[in-house]
Amino acid sequence: MSDKPLASQATNESTKAQGEHPPRREWPLFLGAFVAYVLLSFGVVLSPNWPLWRQALFSKGKPPAAQGTLELTLIHTNDTWGYVEPCG
């Protein structure tokens, strides 16, 4: 076995030395993902059930009526070890 590099390795090293870069493959992937996102967004907006979506998202309905008083109990602890039982 010889210590000489293969022809393809020598070619790669010479092109790297000259400052040439291989073609970038991130842009087609990014562009494809962006187009898929836009098409999916238009699909949601233009779906057949759009009147129902619009009513659910943008309705100015009233909140449900209260059925009684609401009681809230707060228990405070200054425990810094992360225990959830303040009285334990």
List the topology elements.
Blueprint: H1 7-17, H2 26-45, H3 50-58
Give me some keywords for this one.
mainly alpha
Summarize the structure.
Helices cover 45% and strands 0% of the residues.
What does it look like?
By secondary structure, this protein is an all-alpha fold. Helix content is 45%, strand content 0%. The longest helix has 20 residues. The model has no long low-confidence stretch (mean pLDDT 73).
Total E-strand runs: 0
Which descriptor suits the 3D outline?
flat
Total helix count? Answer: 3
User: What's the assembly state of these chains?
Assistant: single chain
Portion in beta strands: under 5%
Order of helices and strands: HHH
First-residue to last-residue Cα separation: 73 Å
Radius of gyration: 32 Å
For the biggest sheet, the summary is: none
**Percent helix range:** 40-55%
Mean pLDDT: 73
Low-confidence runs of at least 5 consecutive residues: none
SS-based class: mainly alpha
